[in-house]
Amino acid sequence: MVYKIIGLMSGSSLDGLDIAYVELQEQPSTQRQGPRAWGYTFLQTATDPYPEEWRRRLTRATGLSALEYQLLHVEYGRYLGERVLAFIEAHGLHYQVQLIASHGHTTFHDPARRMTAQLGDGAAIAAVTGVNVVSDLRAMDVALGGQGAPIVPIGERLLLPGNEYFLNLGGIANISRGAIAYDVCPANRVLNALAELEGKAYDAGGELAAAGRVDERLLERLNALDYYGLPYPKSLANEFGTETVLPMVLQAELPTADALRTYVEHIMVQVGRAVEQLGGGGKTLVTGGGAHNAFLVERLRAFGIDVVVPEAQLVDYKEALVMALMGVLRWREENNVLASVTGASRDSIGGAVWIGQEA
User: Fold this and answer.
1) 337 near 118, Cβ under 8 Å?
2) Strand 133-135 and strand 165-169: pairing?
3) Which of 80, 9, 284 is nearest to 163 (CA)?
4) Which band of pLDDT confidence, cut at 50, 70 and 90, is reported for residue 1?
5) Which CATH architecture has domain 2-154+318-354?
6) How confident is the model at residue 162 (pLDDT cuts 50, 70, 90)?
7) β-pair partners for 185
8) CB 182 within 8 A of CB 175
9) Could you tell me the pTM of the whole model?
10) Read out DSSP for 107-129?
């Protein structure tokens, strides 16, 4: 079967909405049992930067009243639908998109109490676009006692064979190897917040960080945070970066370049420890916005990690691609979240389905 799907991803770094229109094709199985591999082709992609108003509203979402939050949930869903319609119009894709798979924007994430929440009402997306939608991809896993994160390893397994490790350097860095995956540490969300102190949206290529010096006392304090000593499976809420880690960095009152340099070193140490914990050795495919940070990539290699940075579309749109695949698997009623990764009681078919097309 061949599917033409739009995958939507809004990461915790708040740099924008990733839209990937992809073709997915199930490959002939070489095994009698087990999931089949899938081939993929990026047909059209775009990153739609958030206007400052939406960045502000998404950042403040967790402080809203219940009613205000639900209204934002619906409004953001309509916003996503409108951005998809604009994408379809720009690329002449009318009547070609079979399904939209939307990750939404994570706000609350508390798997210990079996709760996770992503803004972006799937019904609103379906109503605006007239296309069938899959959303709420993490909720079933969390209900089954899982972390609900990371959920992309199903896509890495089925779409990207041949790599030992997968490292995503997004707002939060996460790593996977085989059946094991977990959130490592905050990444771009903290780096971008520090770059904003210098009037920059992000530290392009890591140039500011490269000019700074490591503050050993701050680095030691960051590396001693309790989360890093917890066993996997484990996952991080966005607030760990914005409310725990970033204040620690700011309280050190360092020049911005030194703060960035120290935090890059922190990411390097934590990723390096994660690779060592998972056995060490082997190629590490690095994607996400942090893969464009040449200085961070250089530091990872200095730790001894065999970093592989793929072609640009996969770097920038891997998670949107995986959302598309997860949407297809949900539509087919096949498992799309792995309990071996998240710690849930079983594998699950995650996602709510909203029928946007008329009967």
Assistant:
1) no
2) unpaired
3) 284
4) confident
5) 2-Layer Sandwich (3.30)
6) confident
7) 173
8) yes
9) 0.89
10) EEEEGGGTEEEEES-HHHHHHHH
